[in-house]
Prior knowledge:
Helix content is 39%, strand content 15%. It is of the alpha/beta class. The protein folds into two domains: 15-72 and 356-466, Aspartate Aminotransferase, domain 1, CATH 3.90.1150; 78-354, Aspartate Aminotransferase, domain 2 (3-Layer(aba) Sandwich), CATH 3.40.640. α5 (102-114) packs across α12 (339-354), α8 packs parallel to α9 and α14 (411-421) packs across α15 (443-466).
Amino acid sequence: MRAPGQTSNFKPIDAGDIWEKDHKHLLHPFTHFDSFKVEGSLIITEANGCMIKDSNGNEYLDGLGGMWCVNVGYGRNEIAEVMADQARQLAYANPFVDMTNVPASELAAKLASLAPGNLNHVFFSLSGSCANDTAIRLAHFYHARRGEPSRTQIISRMNSYHGSTFLGMSVGNRAGDRVAQFQYINNLIHHLSAPYPYRRPEGMSEEQFTDFLVDEFKTKITQLGKENIAAFIAEPIQGSGGVVVPPKNYLKRMAAVAKENGILFIADEVVTAFGRLGHWFASEDEFGVVPDMIVCAKGLTSGYLPLGATIYSDEIHEGISAPGPDVWFAHGFTYSGHPVCCAVGLKNIEIIERENLLGHVRHVGDHFENRLRALESLPLVGQVRGKRLMMCVEYVADKSTKVPLADEINISKRISNMCELNGLLVRPIGHLDVMSPPLTLSLKQADFIVDTLGNAIEDVARDLKHEGLI
């Protein structure tokens, strides 16, 4: 797994010991306890490029790209070196009030140069969740400073995911995230229909569906009163909600309605930014929209260190920074603008630029997307959708009615397990298998993903037929 000439300083591990410690002591995100108690964890020990290796020496092509995040691939020595150099020079710097550090200032300026329109201001956090929290608090602060403190309500969409903080999980509304034993904020957030063309009402064209969605937004504004609404938040492509690409002109029309009513448009680009679709940011380049704020994380450092950013417009900054002796932006994190994280972010962006990974994604991603779409001819596959290196396969029991398979079949996990046996990791989510490989993916590796996934779908379909389940 290591690159030529690269040596490891790590001692051999006792896989059984690690499995036991993990099983007894570590609570994983989104754990399904009954399954975990039986199966435990797959222990990943090393990685390079698009490949990862487990504690048993098995290698896999990481079709997940970590968690939509390892954009420049694993094992980048130059990122590790920057990380170490910055830690030696300045491991931490207080970010509050009137102190800064060089990497944070440089990265803020770089993001301003890459972002669309006049989004020239940046607030750093440590995750997409916290960056979304920041965007909403910033929207509230902005409206209050402009003399409209009643603008507090947030409009989101069903099937969305905006992080797993209390506020982030409340703003999102994906079926698998709404667990009865948790609590959610209900008096601040309102959800519109997901822009899910595959599951639009029967007999409705995509154009009519877009009209329906925009009218629904207008109706909600009338119900709430525009003077009470702070922001509309949307992922350009809904990620964990099923890689849902909205119908043509949907985002442009929704943004226009928001603007007409003084509502800020927050684009959650935690997944779509930094090359996944072949652009620095997808809002304008892919969908023709310049939002008021862009939220990003993941690909900002390619997952090498945690870092999130809320990038916002000149108008918002002028509004919040207007003269006032007792005005404080009372929001922030101990690790905002962390110098080591920001140094990694700068190096990560340098690599994307130097290696023209945006162009590479457009080339390999178009090939990957086209080949994946051919899987729609297979049994069980209702739709293949997405864009370039952000793709998804949705499984159904009946292609004509789009009726899903029974939940107990656990179709996406069956297929992902089959892929894993053949050296490929994809992400099972309900009735979907999702792919977001590193941007360095080669044409040969793209073909391997498609061929392996296609074979797995066919094998599982045969198994289900033999079991009398389809």
